[in-house]
Amino acid sequence: MSTPFYVSPQQAMADRAEYARKGIARGRSVVVLQYTDGIVFVAENPSRALHKVSEIYDRIAFAAVGKYNEFENLRIGGVRYADLRGFTYHREDVTARGLANVYAQTLGTIFSSNAEKPYEVELIVAEVGAGPEDDQIYRLPHDGSIVDEHGSVAVGGNSDQIGNYLDQRHRDGMTLGEALKLAVESLSRDNNGGERSLTAEQLEVAVLDRTRPQQRKFKRVLGSQLSWLLEEDTPTTGSGADGDGASGDAPTEAGADASSDASEDASQAKEAPAKPAGKAKGAAKDDPDASAEPDASAEDEQK
């Protein structure tokens, strides 16, 4: 009888961790940053059907890198957990910390089990608070550990290089436009130190905006609003529009010209009735086809 091949537990865990890290590194990075009015999520994702960033509950959002089918199952489980807890107790009882604990237990159980391979995913769970000091961002690696992050965090791809870049340049009180540009700059840097261009079509952007009057604070930044924020040179406000998709708050040159023309037409329209008034009165005296009703002022003059 042959002796079974022995592998120490430390070596087995190291091999599983290395396997998961390699799978996560093959994915494109996701960056999460705090700004004045909330938290912004920026992912390099040209697909418009397969999302890396999603809403979980009123003030909670989810971002992930790695194998899509694995983190999509985790996202669905998180939504069900949040809905059940909010329905059973209260909506305020659904927190990012509680959701992160559930994800940590699931990932840790799978990672330590020899019956199945570890999940090749890395998660971010974020919750926007009443103020910047109340925001919560948690990063969950493949092994189920929880890391409490502040300010900025990057996962997937060359996350170490991106994280160092963000730590050196991120600051408190940034506007949405400044935070978005910083995130794009960090994602556009490759492993060799060079830079590449990322367009709006290659990005998936969403925010948790604390200034929204709705109970649900999650909003995707799409279309013209995203292009305007990326091309704008001046600082922008982080409030944005309340609806999903393109925002009406992003002004364009054509809109500015149209508004100025409309104001000029309105001013001319106010002055226009004053000039033909006298002509109309004179025409009424000379024109036999004019209205048969006598003008009160004309009768007074005749008397």
Provide structural commentary.
- There is one protein chain.
- This protein is of the alpha+beta class and 303 residues long.
- It has two domains: 16-251, Aminohydrolase, N-terminal nucleophile (Ntn) domain (Glutamine Phosphoribosylpyrophosphate, subunit 1, domain 1); 254-302, no CATH class.
- 41% of the residues lie in helices and 18% in strands.
- It contains nine helices and ten strands.
- The strands form two sheets. A five-stranded antiparallel sheet has the order 8-1-2-9-10. A five-stranded antiparallel sheet has the order 3-4-5-6-7.
- A hairpin with an 8-residue loop joins strand 5 and strand 6 (136-140).
- Helix 4 (159-169) runs antiparallel to helix 5.
Features:
single chain; disordered C terminus; five-stranded antiparallel beta sheet; 303 residues; Glutamine Phosphoribosylpyrophosphate, subunit 1, domain 1; 2 domains; 9 helices; 10 strands; alpha+beta; globular
Fourth-tier CATH superfamily name of the largest domain:
Aminohydrolase, N-terminal nucleophile (Ntn) domain
CATH topology (level 3) name of the largest domain: Glutamine Phosphoribosylpyrophosphate, subunit 1, domain 1
How many β strands by DSSP? 10
- Main CATH class of the largest domain: Alpha Beta
**What are the secondary-structure elements, in order, as H or E?**
HEEEEHHEEEEHHEEHHHH
Low-confidence stretches: 234-303
Mean pLDDT: 80
Q: Quick one: biggest sheet?
A: 5 strands, antiparallel
| Strand order in the largest sheet | 8-1-2-9-10
